[in-house]
User: What shape does this take?
Amino acid sequence: MSHYREFYTSPVIRFIAVMSLLGALLTCLHFDGYVTILALFFGALVYAFAEYVVHRYLPKLVPALYWRHVEHHKHPQELKYLFSPVYHDVLIYSAYIPLVWL
Ligand SMILES: [Zn+2]
Assistant: This one.
C-alpha cells in the first residue's frame, strides 16, 4: 500500500495523470470517427518507433543521454529514475512534436 501512496503522491506522476486524463477528455470531445481512430493508431506507432530508436541508436548517437536512460533500467522501482531528465525530454520532444503535428 505504501508504494501506491509514494507513486501517486509524486508530482511528476500526478502531472502525467492529469495530462493523460485531459488528453483522453479532449479526444472524446473532438472525436471525429475513423480520423481520430487512425490518429490514435498512428500515435501508438510513432511511440513504439521512438522507443525502438532510443534503445537502438541513442547509445551510439548521444551516449551522454543514453547513460542517464540506463539508470532507469538499473533502478526500475525507484521514482527518481522512472522518467528521463527534463533536458533529455526537451531534446526528444523537439523532434517528436513537429512530427506528430503534421
Ligand atoms: Zn529504456
User: Anything to note?
Assistant: The chain has two domains: 1-30, 32-101.
